[in-house]
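Q: How would the C-alpha cells look for this protein?
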Amino acid sequence: MNWIVFAVVTWIAFGLEIGLRPLISPGDGSIAPSFVIPLLVYVSLWAPARTALWAALVLGLGEDLLSSIDLAPSGNAAIIGPRAIGYLLAAQLVIASRGVVIGRSPVTLVVLSIAAAFVAGVVAVALFTVRSFYDPIVWSPGHQLGVRFFSALYTGVSALALSLVLIPLGSAFQFPHAPGARFARRT
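A: Here is the predicted structure in C-alpha cell form.
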C-alpha cells in the first residue's frame, strides 16, 4: 500500500469529518456520519491484513486524538485507546468478510461501513463505560449506544458518496489486487 496516498486521503477524510459535522448533523450534533470509517473499510477490503490493521490503528488513534470527552467537574480530555481498539476490531470484521463480498461494489462499502461503524461504536462505548467506573467522565451508555447506532446508519450515506471516489483510487493506493486494475489488461 502506498502510505503517502493513504496519508493524503486520511487527511481529507478527517477534514471532511471535522468540517462537515456541524453542517450535516441533525439536532444537537451528536449523531453524525463518519468519513473515516468508509476509508477504513476500503483499505481493509483491499490491503493485506497486517497493513489494514496498522491503517486501522492509525485511523483510530487519529479519531481518539481529535475527539474529546467531557470530564465531570469541568473540561474535556482526549482519551487514547477506545476508538483505536474499536477500529482494529472493525477492520478485523472487514478482513474476515473479504471472501464473501464483492469488493468493487458500492453496496459492499455501504453495508460494511455501517457494520464497522457500529462495531467500533459498541467497543468504544464498552471501554468508556468501564472507564467511567473509576474516572470522572460524563457518560451515559444507553444514550451513547443510540447515538452510535444512528451515526452508523448515517455513515452508510457518506460511504455511498465516498465509494464514487475511493473505488477508482485503487491503483493509486497500489494494493496487490487493486479495484481499479482488477480487470485491466496485463502487459
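The chain has seven helices and two strands.

Confidence is low (pLDDT under 50) at residues 181-187.

Upvote if useful.
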